[in-house]
Amino acid sequence: MTSPHLVFQSLVLGVLLGGLYALLAAGLTLYFGVMRVVMIAHSAFLILAAYLAWWFHDRTGIDPLLSLAVTVPLFFVAGVLMQRLLIRRLSPVTLTMMSVLLTFAIALVIEGLLGYVFSGTQRRVQLGYSGSSFEVLGARVAVVKLIAFGLAVVALLGLYLLLKRSRLGQALRATIQHRDAAALVGIDTDRVAGYGFGLGLATAAVGGTALALDSTIYPSLHWHWIGPLMAIIVVGGLGSVPGAAIAAMALGILQSLLQLEMGTTWAQTVFYVALFATLMVRPQGFFGGRLAQRF
Amino acid sequence: MRSASDPASLRAARWGLLAVAAALVFTFPVLAPNAYILSAGVVVANYAVLATSWNFMGGFTGYISLGHAAYFGLGAYGTGLLVTKADVPSFLALVLSGAIVAVLAVPIGIAALRVRGASFVIVSIALVLILLLVFQSWSSFTGGSNGLNVPRPFPDLLRPEHHLVFYYLFAGLLCLALLTWWAVDRSRFGMGLKAIREDEDKAQSLGVPTFLYKLVAFVVSATFTALGGGLYALWFGDLDPIFQFSILVGSYMVLMALLGGIRNLFGPLVGAVIVGSALEYFKLEFGDTQFHLVAAGLLLALVVLFMPDGVLPFIGDQLRRLGPGQSSIREVSAGELLEQNASRGDLPGQGDGVEGRAAPAPSEVTR
């Protein structure tokens, strides 16, 4: 019934989608790593960035990719401020629980404001190259999807290099591994946690711009993203960046393949099935270590 | 906690307040000037049932579920489908769907309660999203996005009378939920649940069967929520997956319970009255705009940031400050004081001798 040709096509689409998932899941992992915060508002910021890209394009007619120059620094600062002004005010004992509620509240506010300012109408960026595509080994790939994937890969690579090569990255990884020990060797963990938050939100800015290129956006879209992303970070193991990236790729490809047989809506359930299966078999996730155990 | 100077009069005052509140609840339909206000009252009563049901889990065990809308929707759809597809009498269908959800909640609870804290919240959200997907896609059975029409249980009643009957039905269910909560609160079982809330590992090491306790609380909470949902289905008569399995409904439950105070019997009820009326007001004032989302979000953020214990304990603190026994003369010995200070850690080494000069202001003592 399904030709190998179609399977290959969805495999390619799955990889392209998985890249975006991986970038966003990496952001979520960063927040969790530095602050033990599950950031429900991550996907709301994603949609916000997508709206900003659309709005920028709509107003100026310039390619929405250029809006990155504004949104990435803006989101970075927003992330730092959010950690400074809001998350840090919560009492450490109930931080994990209360931060979920707080970020959930932020997500509601963003969704509400988007609906209020831009109305609930579905929006889409129309570009000269929106419709164009090319063939690779018989699979048809839309240019915008490839650009989105490229953005995700570049951003992930940048994040990886930053974490592995720079002093800030070293401090970040130390804070993720053991906050108290990091503080003992002289790392200003509070400041580093703020930067971690900023970097996380910056991934949402990149992801949002990529999303705006090839999807229709509307204010409540973020609920369709947060579920899969949450599932990805639980399957990958909370706090493990490579785990999140691998789980994102695997689940993205799986979703894309299942779409052939089951249609788009049912294929989305693969994330939740994976989530519940993971909890039954390995509650700490497949790649997470000690960190995920108690969360 | 604090034993007042005159417990008898305090108890009398509490019973009096309770009687006044109950009288207000039961005469509300008579006082309501029109059918719209009455229907808003039904909505608030429904929210009160949901928030109190949520509090079986959130209040006792401290497991915050953002996905209780799942049981609300399951109860509503269970009732609706039993009535429409199997021709079960309305209220039998309500009870049956409550029982079905109770059975379903066992495996769900076993899966969800394997994790704590943040992961539990993620699972609870995922549950709502998955059910939303299923009920939207499986349209041959559930009616999908076209909705499901549930016939009214009393077809010959006029609309205001219909609201009136359901107002009392919701109030009755609320009483049942409150009584159950009260009974659990005073039981050994409730003590075990609260021990889990304070420190799960310690509770376990002291021999509390934590997993079983959590599971029972989870199932009770889900069942009451489902009954609230079923009653909603019979009252409203029109179900749509978007509204039944909405994260927003789940978050309203959390907001109401937190705002009122999750450690208080009447906390969720008070929260439901405040938030429910505010939501109705916003809908009336701003119509279909997304503004109520902003309002709900801001309120939730404010509660989480500034009043995580809820408004009832907050008011209680304020009243206690006005009451007697709040002079700066301490009723503790020097040893006890030293211990308190050590555990608080902010006033090191303050002994009896310096107390006269350096006694903190009464407002500081109450904190």
From TrEMBL, chain A:
Protein name per Swiss-Prot or TrEMBL: Branched-chain amino acid ABC transporter permease
Family, per entry: Belongs to the binding-protein-dependent transport system permease family. LivHM subfamily.
InterPro entries, per database record: ABC_transp_permease (IPR001851), BCAA_transport_permease (IPR052157)
Subcellular location(s) of the protein: Cell membrane
Pfam families: BPD_transp_2
Primary localization: membrane
Keywords carried by this UniProt record: Amino-acid transport, Cell membrane, Membrane, Transmembrane, Transmembrane helix, Transport
Residues passing through the membrane, by range: 6-30, 37-56, 62-81, 93-118, 138-163, 192-213, 225-251, 263-281
Naturally occurring in which organism (per UniProt): Motilibacter deserti
Topology in membrane: Multi-pass membrane protein
UniProt keyword Membrane present: yes
TrEMBL record, chain B:
TM ranges: 12-31, 90-113, 120-138, 165-184, 211-235, 241-259, 266-284, 290-312
Predominant subcellular localization, coarse grouping: membrane
KW Transmembrane (keyword) present: yes
Entry-linked CDD domains: TM_PBP1_LivM_like (cd06581)
Organism: Motilibacter deserti
Protein name: Branched-chain amino acid ABC transporter permease
Disordered, as annotated region: 337-367
Membrane topology term: Multi-pass membrane protein
Key words of the record: Cell membrane, Membrane, Transmembrane, Transmembrane helix
Subcellular location: Cell membrane
Keyword Transmembrane included in the entry's annotation: yes
InterPro entries, sorted: ABC_transp_permease, LivM-like
